[in-house]
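Quarterly update from the structural biology core.
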Amino acid sequence: MFAPLFRGANRPLPLLALEIGALALLAYLVWRPDCKNYLSRPLLLTLILLFCYPLLQLAPLPPNLWSQLPGRDFYSHALAQANDGQALESWRAASLVPWATEVAWLALLPPITLFLVGVGLPAPQLQSLLKLFLGVAAVQALLGLLQYGAGSDSVFRLGNPYCCSSAVGTYASRDHLAGLLEMALPVGLALLTATVGRSSSHAGSYRRRRTLRHRLTKLAALPINEAAIYGSACVAIILGLVFTRSRTGIILAMVGILLCTVVFARRLGGKNAYGLIGMLTFIGWSLAMEVGLVPVLNRFTLESATDDYRWSIFSSTLEAAARFFPLGSGAGTFIEVYPRFHPPDIVFDGIVNHAHNDYLEAFLEAGLAGIVLSLALLGFYIFQWKRIWQRGNWSSFRLLQAGAGIGLLLLILHSAVDFNLHIPANAIFFAFLAAVFFHRQQQDESLKVDVSSVVGGEETAAIETPAGNLNLSPIKNVRNPFAD
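Predicted structure, tokenized:
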């Protein structure tokens, strides 16, 4: 909840607060290392390498060896000239800018520790946190709607002088707000699908309690009202994405709706309680959203200031990455290294602080390790879909895992044209959805019996199994413990 409040935590002090919080999570992880029971050894090893590689780039090297590393000859000559022509004598870190690599390493603490702690939490707690995540995204979307069209001096702008013609929420850029919302949209649709038509344990207690307070409390917890809340949150998120005026965000929203239609339509209402009509209604609603977003994409979106230069930045980044291959220039060094390779005939009004492609930037900074780690994590993501995608009726948590997986995919695609994974708030939300997606709860779900009503000495029970809800109505010859 704290992460997005101050420009997506892409500022020193809020990032420092998140890193201190990550240390607390790390202490909890040492005390209760539950993640070892839920993650495969190859995935754990990959995460360890991801976390340790910046430290390897900080290892000091003798001057002769350092000057012979790929791409260091230019800087070796420059340092020698600055030292009156004398050769280097002091040991130097492999990274060209050690302090920037240290900052990048510390920024990995919050998302990695949150993932490791989250993947070991019980499924009900993750489900509650998903609802909280959806609420955070909906609030950001509503704030973006209030910001749209307001001037830079509007109180809703929260002092942000940029993107005055679009929604940004509490982020510095509209594309980063779009990154959050596109992750949240499939989660909202998954919660909606998991709620509509499924039995609730609140119904029986609602009938037994007659006071007005209990009636109102239980009425708010009925599935139809939960569905209305989730549906409203999804509508707010879609509108927030539209008013960010981000072309990539709107395109990925359309992709997300299409994927959710394919995955969720046949599973609407538990054991397809609404049959063919419910499935066709869901598909029709999704297609209507797709058709409605097309003219918005054509007429309403804006080009960002870097769109015209993006391919040039990609080409220059590739040239720089080839120069430093296979070791890379050092994590977090892009902003210092890139200007040397920027085409002199292209004048850009501003600073190119990122490659606008997280994968190319990882290739430049981490070299071969950046490619290998990215492909390994992508392979784990694809393999996890095989675990989740099973025939038959899905449990509620499996639906939420699928929604989290689609949200991850959308940000993975967005990161090819932007730097959302370098925004601490979005990196943290990405790690949280990854914890939900990689959770192993679906492998060993136990039977959960829920007595939903007691009527005339007979009890109606609902058993939640890995295949869905099994309603047993009635169970006779069961003594009512409250009868005496």
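The radius of gyration is 26 Å.
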